[in-house]
Specification:
The protein is of the alpha+beta class and about 400 residues long. The protein is built from 14 helices and 21 strands. Strands 3-9-10-14-13-12-11 form a seven-stranded mixed beta sheet. The radius of gyration is 25 Å and the shape is elongated. The two termini are about 30 Å apart. About 35% of the residues are buried. The mean pLDDT is about 95. The protein binds adenosine-5'-triphosphate. Adenosine-5'-triphosphate binds next to strand 10, strand 13, strand 14 and helix 10.
């Protein structure tokens, strides 16, 4: 397994992730995503939405700041803490809304996105009249004043979560829990994470939160703990705990939806994953050092859907006008459909190395032969094999492989 130091250094050198507030000595637990990091993070989010947004799943984007009553009702004001010396230390960041800095103006930066979903449950029901089972999904920032942020993106104070709350009849909760558990593991492996680096950790009765019916973590082999494995995603059956917290006495039970569904409070199954931890897992898993043509190289074997750049275009010689013009034409065609990079600096071998390091799956070279027969070479990142393909088939070639 690649060391965290190598990943941190690659991430900085190639513009994936920088230390937060770096030029002022940093701010512990914060990280800034660079140009390639942004692209890769967007790809992770897109694939998550793709997997989540079935017809009966609704998207939401709730505010980061919420009325402090939300966090009182959810139990976070009282219980969201880690032990610190004699006292418990609450992990929520506190601030003030408005000009007064008194108790009544206290607001918290959300420590998870989930509560934003629960407090909007009735709004979604009233607007869309969904039948059980249905879900509400959200991606957004979360903040935790971790006592010791550490291990790069693994434990930071500002991070991003992707959460689905899937509401169902209590009698079906076990089935949905099991389906979602399977579905989430498949999501990671289908996007290229090696099976042997992932495992389930099913919680025993004594490990469960008091409100949880069942909990499983999907763990990745980050190499940060004794076993090597640490939590990447948590999947929980949260029962009816949260809805009951926010709608005490179930005053909303008269609501048309609940009446129709038989008068019970739905249970909720929640898969919750930190994007930053997923990002780190994708990077670590893709990292490889191998040899091509007798030369050592460092390569990120990212799944093409996750790779920040899909294709790079190289004019063989950077000073020949007709080659440059043809390469521009190819570049302009490709960039309409894919994130495409242009590189005309140094020999082709060097350009390949640069793209390998950022995980670009395909490199296209325009050479003298292109001018004669409209073919280009396309080179595969993982095998380093090159093929000649007609320019007019290039789009299809890449599209087929992206699927
Ligand atoms: P841990 O036990 O590692 O502190 P947790 O069980 O408190 O995590 P959850 O509250 O279940 O985490 O949050 C869901 C997901 O959010 C986690 O699986 C993880 O991917 C992510 N996450 C939680 N805390 C952090 C953090 N400080 N930095 C980055 N990601 C985090």
């Amino acid at each position: 397994m690649v060391s965290l130091e190598k990943i941190v250094s690659l991430a900085k050198r190639r513009g994936f992730v920088f230390q937060g507030s770096e030029i002022y000595g940093g701010l512990a637990g914060t990280w800034d995503y660079g140009p390639l990091g942004v692209l890769m993070k967007e790809n992770i989010k897109r694939e998550w939405w793709r997997a989540m947004l079935e017809p009966h799943v609704f998207a939401l984007d709730s505010a980061i700041l919420a009325n402090s009553k939300v966090w009182e009702a959810s139990g976070h004001v009282e219980n969201f803490s880690d032990p610190l010396g004699e006292q418990q230390f609450n992990l929520m960041f506190k601030t003030h809304a408005g000009a007064l800095e008194n108790e009544s103006a206290t607001v918290y930066l959300r420590p998870e996105t989930a509560q934003g979903i629960f407090i909007n449950f009735k709004n979604v029901v009233d607007a869309f009249h969904p039948k059980l089972a249905f879900g509400i999904a959200q991606i957004g920032k979360a903040f935790r004043n971790e006592i010791t942020p550490r291990n790069f993106l693994f434990r930071s104070r500002e991070f991003e979560q992707m959460e689905l709350e899937y509401f169902c009849e209590p009698k079906n909760a076990d089935k949905y829990f099991s389906d979602i558990r399977t579905m989430r593991m498949k999501w990671f492996t289908s996007l290229g994470i090696k099976k042997e680096n992932l495992q389930f950790h099913d919680y025993g009765k004594d490990e469960l939160a008091h409100y949880a019916g069942a909990t499983t973590d999907i763990e990745y082999r980050y190499g940060l703990s004794e076993s090597g494995f640490s939590e990447l995603e948590g999947i929980a059956n949260r029962t009816d705990f949260d809805l009951k917290n926010h709608f005490p006495g179930c005053s909303w039970i008269d609501n048309e939806f609940v009446a129709r569904e038989g008068g019970f409070v739905p249970y909720v199954i929640e898969p919750s994953v930190g994007i930053d931890r997923a990002f780190l897992a994708f990077l670590m898993d893709a990292y490889a050092e191998d040899e091509v043509g007798g030369e050592k190289r460092m390569v990120l074997k990212l799944h093409p859907k996750i790779a920040p750049v899909k294709v790079a275009v190289f004019p063989l010689v950077g000073n020949k006008e007709n080659i440059m013009a043809k390469a521009r034409e190819v570049f302009d065609t490709l960039r309409k459909d894919f994130t495409t990079r242009w590189d005309d600096i140094g020999n082709i071998g060097k350009r390949y190395r640069r793209q390998d390091e950022i995980g670009t799956p395909w490199c296209v070279t325009i050479d003298y032969q292109t001018l004669e027969d409209s073919t280009v070479t396309i080179r595969d990142r993982d095998t380093a094999k090159q093929e000649r393909v007609e320019v007019k088939e290039l789009l299809q070639y890449i599209q087929d492989r992206l699927k």
